[in-house]
Amino acid sequence: MGRAPSPCIVVHYHEISLKGGNRPLFLRRLGRNLLAATAGCGVRGVRRLPGRLVLDLDPEADLPEVRERIGTLFGIAYFAPALSIPPEWPVVQAAVLQLLEGRTFESFRITARRTFKVFPMPSDEINRELGALVLRHFATRVNLTEPTLNVRVDLLPREAFVFVDRVTGPGGLPVGVSGRVAALLSGGIDSPVAACRLQKRGCEVEFVHFHSVPYLADTSQRKVRALVERLVRHQFSARLWLVPFGEIQREVVLGVPAPLRVVVYRRLMARITEAIARKTGALALVTGESLGQVASQTLENIARMTEAVGMPVLRPLIGTDKEEIIREARAIGTFEISIEPDQDCCTLFVPKHPETRASAEAVAAAEARLDMARLVEAGVESAAPETFRFPPAEAGALLSAGS
Ligand code: ATP
Ligand code: MG
């Protein structure tokens, strides 16, 4: 032992999310995601210790960048940039002084914790001794209830960690543990939030967008690209399927009475997305619908869309108010992109008074005048996937070229 303190990040997860047999999968995936998120930042590797994961850093690692990259990683309850040391009393004392070097702090406390109680001193005594040590070296005072700095010492049987800042993570499950879903991404406020909620529950998302180029400008495509660039941070690699929908809509307009068109568009979108889902191994669809938010999001119309497909349609925002959705969109960084002016494909060929309670019979009669199977096939065949990565390939290449 006797090695020098080495920089690391201690990562904690919610034990409660590890119920049942999913612990090994959860930890393996969280470890992999931590490495993927911090690629190019000077991370040496990831280790599994009782109750936490440890990211070992090069001494010259880009700590602010690492903090930023893992700050939004799903599966993390909280994390702390720390010094890893052997659990030996003189080393612990020296590491606490090293950690506080150059800082000024009005008050502090020491919070020592012994895992498995192997360390020979009781926590109270460690707190008192280290407190006295800090008081001898710094102009500060002890405040047990509201300290400026809480100096934490975690003592494990073969290793100890000292740290001051604990950063709250987003919680949730590591992306990848729950399988794959296909999200209908419109460029509006709701659907990116819906997709992100599924990422937070551990899903990898395939993004599907329907556009009406050349009937409308390509703004919606630029918006969804920007949205996927935001959301790919949570899953490192993502595909956006761009589906030309203008021609399909034109055929619907020719055959379907105006009030039913929106429902038929949605059913076509659902079926095309379902085919893409099957192709990519996704097991469910995701939409940003919220009950009653707009005329088309009634129980009847939601039922008509659901009936069109043979897989679950997940609607994580179904009971969420618009204000809450907007708050969440701001927090995940999609709001500013979503509110950019845009012409949604559903504004094209849309009647003034869409049916709010489309019956199954009316929809079936309308669709009987279309060749639905051919329209779905045309949509699937013309769907073009674009791949997004985080960290972006160029950034990764630049970083490794520089080192
Ligand atoms: P959003 O804010 O997500 O656009 P919205 O409140 O505008 O939703 P609608 O326009 O009724 O509601 O769309 C409902 C859902 O249908 C969207 O959340 C999205 O999942 C899907 N959707 C709508 N238009 C498109 C599109 N052009 N491409 C892909 N999905 C779409
Ligand atoms: Mg919309």
- Portion in strands: 15-25%
Count of alpha and pi helical runs: 14
> What would the principal axes of the Cα set say about the shape?
elongated
Number of extended strands:
15
> What is the helix content?
25-40%
Largest sheet features: 9 strands, mixed
> What number is the mean pLDDT?
93
The arrangement of helices and strands along the chain is EHEEHEHEHEEEEEHEHEHHEHEHHHHEH
Give the terminus-to-terminus CA distance. Answer: 30 Å
- pLDDT < 50 stretches: none
Question: How would you describe this protein?
Answer:
There is one protein chain. This protein has helices spanning 23-37, 63-70, 89-100, 123-137, 190-200, 219-231, 246-255, 261-280, 299-307, 322-332, 335-338, 360-367, 372-382, 393-402, and strands at 6-12, 43-49, 52-57, 76-85, 107-114, 141-142, 149-155, 160-163, 167-171, 180-184, 204-211, 237-244, 285-286, 313-314, 384-389. The protein has 14 helices and 15 strands. Helix content is 39%, strand content 22%. The strands form 2 sheets. Strands 1, 2, 3, 4, 5, 6, 7, 8 and 9 form a 9-stranded mixed beta sheet that branches. Helix 4 (123-137) links the parallel strand 5 (107-114) and strand 6. Helix 8 packs across helix 13 (372-382). It has 403 residues and is of the alpha/beta class. Bound molecules: adenosine-5'-triphosphate and magnesium ion (MG). Magnesium ion is lined by residues 186, 188, 344. Adenosine-5'-triphosphate binds next to helix 5 and strand 11.
